[in-house]
Amino acid sequence: MGGSSPAFQVKLAQTSADLRAAQALRYEVFVSELGGGGALVDHDVRLERDHFDAYCDHLLLWDLERDRVVGVYRLLRSDQALRAGQFYSEGEYDLTKLTASGRRLLELGRSCLHPDYRGGTAMFHLWSALADYVAEHDIEILFGVASFHGTEITPLANALSMLYHNHLAPEALRPVAREYQSMDLIAVDDLNRRQAMLDTPALIKAYLRLGGCVGDGAFVDHEFNTTDVCLVLDTARMNARQKRIYGAGRSTI
C-alpha cells in the first residue's frame, strides 16, 4: 500500500457482525479471486462460510483507519473440533496419528489477506497475535491444509516433490491424504530447486522457515480450485531463532 503504514488491531471475533466481516473477506479472496466454491457459499450476500465457523475462533486483523477487516485466521482447537464432530482437515486427510498423539492440537484454516495488504506487515501482526493464542491455550502442535492455486499437478511437480523429499513430517505425526495424490513426482537429483521455491506459496514457505513439515500426499480440491498439502508444526521442535520469529512483536487479543 502506498503512503503511511496502516494502524492495525488484531482481535478475536466477538459478534455476528465480526464473523460476517471475516466471511466477506474470505469470499473476496477464495471465491472472487481464486475461483473457489462450496455448498454454503452465499453468492447473493458474498459470504464464504461453512459448518465449522460456528465452532471456531476467528482471528481478525483490522485496519483501524479504514475500519475494515483485512486479514483472518480460523482457529479450531481439539475441544472445539470434538463439538464440531471433527477437524476440518479430516475431510481431506487421515489425522489419526495426530489425534492419537495426546498432544494439544490447533488447526489453522482459512488464512487470507486482502490483496492491498500483502507483502507488508499485515501477516506479521496476525502471526504475533496467533503466538499469544498458542501460548494462552498451551498448544503443542499446529496443523492445517495450505493450498497451491489450481488443480493441475504437472506445474506443481517441482514444488510438491521438494516438499516430499525435504519436509516430510515425522512418521509418528504424519497425516495421509484420503484421496491420495503422490508428491513424489520428480527424483531428488532432478529437482529444479529454484523453480520449486518460486512455485511454493509464501505462506507455505513461512511455515517451513518455522520448522513446519508436510503430510504424505497432496489433496486435489476441485471445489476450491486448489491443490492442498497438510502442514504440521510441532512447537517443541522450533529452535530458538524460529521462536523469536514466531513470537516477536506479541499483540494482545
From TrEMBL:
<comment type="pathway">
    <text>Lipid metabolism.</text>
</comment>
<dbReference type="InterPro" id="IPR052351">
    <property type="entry name" value="Ornithine_N-alpha-AT"/>
</dbReference>
<keyword id="KW-0443">Lipid metabolism</keyword>
<dbReference type="Pfam" id="PF13444">
    <property type="entry name" value="Acetyltransf_5"/>
</dbReference>
<keyword id="KW-0808">Transferase</keyword>
<protein>
    <recommendedName>
        <fullName>L-ornithine N(alpha)-acyltransferase</fullName>
        <ecNumber>2.3.2.30</ecNumber>
    </recommendedName>
</protein>
<keyword id="KW-0012">Acyltransferase</keyword>
<comment type="similarity">
    <text>Belongs to the acetyltransferase family. OlsB subfamily.</text>
</comment>
<dbReference type="InterPro" id="IPR016181">
    <property type="entry name" value="Acyl_CoA_acyltransferase"/>
</dbReference>
<keyword id="KW-0444">Lipid biosynthesis</keyword>
<comment type="function">
    <text>Catalyzes the first step in the biosynthesis of ornithine lipids, which are phosphorus-free membrane lipids. Catalyzes the 3-hydroxyacyl-acyl carrier protein-dependent acylation of ornithine to form lyso-ornithine lipid (LOL).</text>
</comment>
